[in-house]
Amino acid sequence: MQASPSQKATCDYHIFNAFFYNKLKQQLSRKGGEKESFFVKFRRWWKGVNLFEKAYILIPIHEDLHWSLVIICFPEKKDNRSGPMLLHLDSLKLHYSRVVLEDITSFLREEWQYLHQEVARQSDVEISDKIWKRLHNISSRRIEVPQQKNDYDCGIFVLYFMEHFIDEAPERLKEVDLDMFGKQWFKPEEASRLRKKIRDLLKTEFRKLRKRSIACESLAVPSGGSTSAENSNSTESS
């Protein structure tokens, strides 16, 4: 479902699921040949996706009962000076940004090495040489963001970071665009209200599902019969 009112092409983004980072840490802990073979299997998580062609990659981070978010920002192909920017957004500043960003940097380098070998073996793999050169110029930083006012809304804040960023980010983020962030980026109450928005959305979808289920049951019952839903309602009434 379209989660954002933004008209931006979803093909410019890739969002990893909540289990990706822990799986990545397993990959980074491997040694020697085991590490290489494990990475080939690990790549199934983004099978068919050229990450370096995206404008943004969003990675939820879950550790120590806390959530934060990493955003990888790739520059335009014609930008020969800039490299990827790694941004860490944490609504409680509980995660060690340096460790998290080093893990993501290592991931990008391993993917770069793998694709570089593929390019050498297969002439039909088209990846700009400029991307390989710029990858050595990776910058990373922890971003100041609004802070949650309780100890349980970190997951909600990560979802709101994602939604708010997709709505406001330019086609390609540059250094000068980092001013969009800050503790005044939005009011913490706005993020906390997302919990009710998600709950209402789920209720609406479950109601739609129930109506479709009852309609299907009605079509399946012979003329003069009654649906299980009607029987249930009758029982409840009695």
Automatic annotation (TrEMBL):
The keyword Transmembrane helix does not apply. Residues 1-165 form the Ubiquitin-like protease family profile domain. It comes from the Eukaryota. Keywords: Hydrolase, Protease, Thiol protease. InterPro entries: Papain-like_cys_pep_sf (IPR038765), Peptidase_C48_C (IPR003653). The keyword Hydrolase applies. GO terms for biological process: protein desumoylation; proteolysis. Gene3D superfamilies: 1.10.418.20, Ubiquitin-related (3.30.310.130). GO terms for molecular function: cysteine-type peptidase activity. Belongs to the peptidase C48 family. This is Ubiquitin-like protease family profile domain-containing protein. The lineage of its organism: Eukaryota, Viridiplantae, Streptophyta, Embryophyta, Tracheophyta.
